[in-house]
Amino acid sequence: MTASPHGPALDRVATVARALSDRLGAIEGELYQVRNRSFQDPLNFPPKLVERISGLSSVVGGIDAAPTAQSSAVFQMFAPEVQKQLVALQDVLTRDLRAVNAAFRGAGAATIVPKAAELRRPLPREVSTR
Predict the structure, then answer these.
(1) pLDDT band at residue 15 under the 50/70/90 scheme
(2) Contact 72, 127 (CB under 8 A)
Protein backbone atom coordinates (compact mmCIF):
# COMPACT_ATOMS: atom_id res chain seq x y z
CA MET A 1 0.00 0.00 0.00
CA THR A 2 1.44 3.37 -0.98
CA ALA A 3 1.07 6.44 1.14
CA SER A 4 -1.26 9.18 0.06
CA PRO A 5 0.27 12.43 -1.20
CA HIS A 6 -1.85 14.15 1.46
CA GLY A 7 0.02 12.58 4.35
CA PRO A 8 -0.63 10.03 7.09
CA ALA A 9 -3.10 12.22 8.99
CA LEU A 10 -5.46 12.36 6.02
CA ASP A 11 -4.94 8.66 5.35
CA ARG A 12 -6.07 8.00 8.93
CA VAL A 13 -9.13 10.25 8.44
CA ALA A 14 -10.08 8.35 5.29
CA THR A 15 -9.69 4.97 6.98
CA VAL A 16 -11.74 5.73 10.10
CA ALA A 17 -14.35 7.72 8.17
CA ARG A 18 -14.85 4.79 5.77
CA ALA A 19 -15.23 2.42 8.74
CA LEU A 20 -17.79 4.77 10.31
CA SER A 21 -19.70 4.99 7.04
CA ASP A 22 -19.69 1.21 6.64
CA ARG A 23 -21.03 0.65 10.18
CA LEU A 24 -23.74 3.28 9.74
CA GLY A 25 -24.67 1.74 6.40
CA ALA A 26 -24.98 -1.71 7.97
CA ILE A 27 -27.33 -0.36 10.64
CA GLU A 28 -29.38 1.49 8.04
CA GLY A 29 -29.58 -1.71 5.98
CA GLU A 30 -31.02 -3.61 8.96
CA LEU A 31 -33.61 -0.91 9.65
CA TYR A 32 -34.64 0.01 6.09
CA GLN A 33 -34.72 -1.75 2.75
CA VAL A 34 -32.12 0.41 1.02
CA ARG A 35 -32.18 -1.46 -2.31
CA ASN A 36 -35.66 -0.24 -3.31
CA ARG A 37 -35.34 2.06 -6.31
CA SER A 38 -38.58 1.47 -8.20
CA PHE A 39 -42.17 0.57 -7.45
CA GLN A 40 -41.44 -3.09 -8.26
CA ASP A 41 -38.45 -3.42 -5.93
CA PRO A 42 -40.50 -4.17 -2.79
CA LEU A 43 -41.52 -7.35 -4.58
CA ASN A 44 -37.87 -8.32 -5.06
CA PHE A 45 -36.39 -7.19 -1.75
CA PRO A 46 -37.96 -8.09 1.61
CA PRO A 47 -39.12 -5.35 3.97
CA LYS A 48 -36.80 -4.53 6.85
CA LEU A 49 -37.58 -3.72 10.47
CA VAL A 50 -38.93 -0.19 10.10
CA GLU A 51 -41.16 -1.11 7.18
CA ARG A 52 -42.50 -4.09 9.11
CA ILE A 53 -43.21 -2.30 12.36
CA SER A 54 -44.51 0.87 10.69
CA GLY A 55 -47.39 -1.11 9.20
CA LEU A 56 -48.79 -1.26 12.71
CA SER A 57 -49.45 2.48 12.80
CA SER A 58 -52.23 2.26 10.23
CA VAL A 59 -53.70 -0.80 11.94
CA VAL A 60 -53.79 0.60 15.46
CA GLY A 61 -54.31 4.22 14.43
CA GLY A 62 -57.35 3.46 12.33
CA ILE A 63 -59.58 2.28 15.19
CA ASP A 64 -60.98 3.88 18.32
CA ALA A 65 -59.92 1.06 20.63
CA ALA A 66 -56.85 -0.33 22.29
CA PRO A 67 -54.49 -2.28 20.04
CA THR A 68 -55.45 -5.89 19.53
CA ALA A 69 -53.44 -8.70 21.06
CA GLN A 70 -52.14 -9.52 17.59
CA SER A 71 -50.92 -5.94 17.06
CA SER A 72 -49.19 -6.00 20.43
CA ALA A 73 -47.60 -9.35 19.59
CA VAL A 74 -46.24 -8.02 16.30
CA PHE A 75 -44.89 -4.97 18.10
CA GLN A 76 -43.24 -7.18 20.73
CA MET A 77 -41.70 -9.27 17.96
CA PHE A 78 -40.05 -6.39 16.08
CA ALA A 79 -39.41 -3.74 18.76
CA PRO A 80 -36.44 -5.59 20.34
CA GLU A 81 -34.78 -5.90 16.93
CA VAL A 82 -35.28 -2.18 16.27
CA GLN A 83 -33.91 -1.45 19.74
CA LYS A 84 -30.85 -3.61 19.00
CA GLN A 85 -30.09 -1.47 15.96
CA LEU A 86 -30.63 1.74 17.95
CA VAL A 87 -28.15 0.51 20.55
CA ALA A 88 -25.68 -0.27 17.75
CA LEU A 89 -26.24 3.25 16.39
CA GLN A 90 -25.55 4.75 19.82
CA ASP A 91 -22.34 2.70 19.98
CA VAL A 92 -21.25 3.96 16.57
CA LEU A 93 -22.08 7.56 17.48
CA THR A 94 -19.96 7.35 20.61
CA ARG A 95 -17.05 4.96 20.04
CA ASP A 96 -16.57 5.08 16.26
CA LEU A 97 -17.33 8.78 15.90
CA ARG A 98 -14.84 9.48 18.69
CA ALA A 99 -12.15 7.80 16.56
CA VAL A 100 -13.17 9.81 13.49
CA ASN A 101 -13.08 13.06 15.45
CA ALA A 102 -9.65 12.20 16.85
CA ALA A 103 -8.42 11.65 13.29
CA PHE A 104 -9.98 14.96 12.19
CA ARG A 105 -8.28 16.79 15.06
CA GLY A 106 -4.98 15.13 14.08
CA ALA A 107 -5.44 16.44 10.55
CA GLY A 108 -6.37 19.92 11.82
CA ALA A 109 -9.98 19.64 10.65
CA ALA A 110 -13.27 20.41 12.40
CA THR A 111 -14.98 17.58 14.25
CA ILE A 112 -18.45 16.12 13.80
CA VAL A 113 -21.03 16.86 16.49
CA PRO A 114 -24.08 14.58 16.11
CA LYS A 115 -27.53 15.68 17.10
CA ALA A 116 -29.41 12.54 18.06
CA ALA A 117 -32.66 12.01 19.90
CA GLU A 118 -32.70 10.09 23.14
CA LEU A 119 -32.58 6.38 22.46
CA ARG A 120 -34.92 4.37 24.62
CA ARG A 121 -36.85 1.13 24.46
CA PRO A 122 -40.36 1.73 23.07
CA LEU A 123 -43.19 0.54 25.25
CA PRO A 124 -46.22 -1.34 23.87
CA ARG A 125 -48.61 1.26 25.30
CA GLU A 126 -46.91 3.86 23.06
CA VAL A 127 -48.27 2.14 19.95
CA SER A 128 -51.70 3.69 20.49
CA THR A 129 -53.80 4.65 23.48
CA ARG A 130 -56.94 5.70 21.66
Answers:
(1) very high
(2) yes
